[in-house]
Amino acid sequence: MTSPLLTPAQVADDTLDLLRVAVENIRHMQALFSAIKVDFKHSKHAETEQLADLGAALAYDWGNYHGDQVTRAQKDLDALETEAGSSQAPAISSGVPLSDYAKGRQAALGAQLGLSQTAINKAMRSGRSIFVIEHADGTISAVEHKAFGVAGYALTGGAK
Q: 50-72, pLDDT tens digit by residue?
């Protein structure tokens, strides 16, 4: 069963969670080895073998768990890279009309696109067919859909 495509932020969050669990597991191992040392030093080795067996079992389980999680994270990243590679030229239909996307946030959108708020407002008022596209990496772009070969326009000059 394949999971839905995650965003880069979700993959990063999952990876950070995995690292937090790994740190906690390492601290548990530290406590276990401290207990083995204390038992070895003070108890004439009464529990050392059982503590060592527990440590080996935990290390085996945690190693398998973390290995599986790393494999899963790598698959998620590979899927994101594949998706990013296949969406280099996004379809206009996947965009949101500029007038809908920019309502109430013209200045912020303009900054993201490298334009002024005035330019965004003018484009919205003009009725031009502009679409804003959100990419998987969190960036945005805008494309304009224009008619080609509209009646009434003629090219003059050129080669004869």
A: 888 888 888 888 888 888 888 88
